[in-house]
Amino acid sequence: MKTFKEFLADEYGVDYFIIEMPVELVSEEALINEGQWVQSGKKDWMQRVDAENPSIKQQRHVHVARSKHTSSKHKQVSWNQDGTKHDAGSFNSKIGSLNVVQTIACQALGLSHTAKLDEATRAGNILVQLNESQNIGITPVLFKLRLA
């Protein structure tokens, strides 16, 4: 009989272990919830973290929505692990601009609370209104720079 340490050191050792235990003994943070809508910890907000899929160049990402809108694609937001919008076509800018939603996303992805997520900005509209009021006659272009 080998000790556990000897077993791990063996060149024909095991690559991984599967341990079965009652769910009550596992902390909530340790449960694997990828791909499932779960409570975010913020009142009435749900989150769903989906795993990366390198075969289709999909990053790990999080979806955030109110409890009643988890089936409504246009009433939720999603960000990739690098902070870019995941489903830009259905991204709800109004929801994406909420601090609580950005906090949920950062926590779900394990990002720093100071991480900058791509979000809705009203700056473009402000520039258009300024141009119209000043009769400048050109359409502004808003550049968003991401600093590492």
What does this structure look like?
The structure is a single chain. With 148 residues, this protein is α+β, with helices and mostly antiparallel strands. It has four helices and four strands; from the N terminus they run αββββααα. It has a four-stranded antiparallel beta sheet with strand order 1-2-3-4. The protein starts with a helix and ends in a 14-residue tail after the last helix.
Outline the secondary-structure elements:
Layout: H1 4-9, E1 38-39, E2 45-50, E3 61-66, E4 76-80, H2 93-96, H3 99-109, H4 123-134
Antiparallel strand pairs: 1-2, 2-3, 3-4
Low-confidence stretches: 120-126, 140-148
| Subunit organisation of the chains | single chain
Helix coverage percent of residues? 10-25%
Termini separation comes to 52 Å
Class by alpha and beta content = alpha+beta
Can you write the helix and strand succession as a string? HEEEEHHH
Envelope shape: elongated
Task: Sketch the major β-sheet.
Answer: 4 strands, antiparallel
